[in-house]
Amino acid sequence: MSHRIGIIGGDGIGPEVIAEGLKVISATGVKLETITYDLGGARYGRDGTVLPDEVIEEWRDLDALYLGAVGTPELPPGLIERGLLLKMRFALDLYVNLRPFTYEENNIDFSVVRENTEGSYAGEGGVLRQGTANEIATQGSVNTRMGVERCIRFAFDLAARRRGHLTLVHKTNVLTFAGDLWERTFNEVADEYPEVETAYNHVDAACIYFVQSPEQYDVIVTDNLFGDILTDLGGAISGGIGMAASANLNPSRTGPSMFEPVHGSAPDIAGQGVANPTAAILSGAMMLDFLGENHAAHRIKEVCADPEVQVQGTAAIGDAIAERVS
Ligand code: IPM
Ligand code: MN
Does ligand 1 come within 6 angstroms of the Cβ of 85? Predict the structure, then answer.
């Protein structure tokens, strides 16, 4: 059986690292039928296409999407990020952004469950009197009971399958409206999971604990923006952002989920063959896990944790991993 996967290499180092991910998956023997989509800043620069609705409709029949990175420095910030990446997350209802971190050296083995369709990413707000001395800009954070609850439930389920510990990260001492909704929902769902021990950290304190005592975490659940920031830090403390994988999940499986490294398109090192493809390869492993190819996924993760595969160069790392998984 082969899985039908949409491939969006994207911009910068995106296509380079995705090529290695596909190389490694193929080495495991798992068969993919790939359909390549030329999307991202470069494509926009050529013909003004960002993400047509027909393409999203086509994606609905796929088993998964595998994305490198999108964004080019010459375009206005947000154009591709909002128009492509966020549109994808919203249109396909990829409401959980799951970002696992493991790093033996620092005793790190935790997963961040980042809410992926709401918060300050929702696009609420606007600008008045732009460019004048009286300009006003607002950017709200949208938190629905439904959106918060489904994300928190996913996190409790995950914690119950792991070491049984879940930490809510927010800023309830300042963001009292959103924080209260998150905290109440968290506590109510917690009653259904007596086997999961819970904790709460303010996001600023969590930044300290990430650096000083990351071994205390098993699963973390948090809102979209806090999750974005914390997971870059998560990458930095667990071997570098070149190792950080992510899964944008539609857990109800009403459409394809999307798998991408946490890092961006890194235009400064694009085309040099020096980007670390491990994050993309591990995101590929998360994709295989979600597709039920658990044996191949496990093997990839095991090999990626071996420091010996961290040689020099994008293709060389891909080769080292591919050789060991086959
Ligand atoms: C990420 C990225 C995106 C985000 C950007 C590119 C829109 O930083 O996936 O973490 O903020 O979600
Ligand atoms: Mn980010």
Answer: yes
Give the Cα separation of 72 and 63 in Å (integer).
28
Which residues lie near ion ligand 2 (Cβ < 5 Å)?
A: 228
Query: With a 6 A CB cut-off, is 115 part of the ligand 1 pocket?
Result: no
Long-range contacts of range 27-30, CB-CB < 8 Å, 24 or more positions apart?
27/321, 27/322, 27/323, 27/325, 27/326, 28/288, 28/293, 28/296, 28/299, 28/300, 28/325, 28/326, 29/296, 29/326, 30/3, 30/288, 30/293, 30/296
Q: How far is CA 113 from CA 34, 41, 290, in A?
A: 28, 28, 15
pLDDT at 222 over 90: yes
Run of H or E residues at 229 = helix 224-237
Mind listing the pLDDT tens digit for each residue in 161-185?
999 999 999 999 999 999 999 999 9
Residues 258-284 pLDDT 10s: 999 999 999 999 999 999 999 999 999
Residue 102 and residue 49 in contact, taking contact as beta carbons nearer than 8 Å:
no
Of 11, 66, 171, 223, the catalytic one is: 171
Q: Does ligand 1 have an atom closer than 6 angstroms to the CB of 13?
A: no
Give which of 17, 258, 222 is closest to 110, Cα–Cα: 222
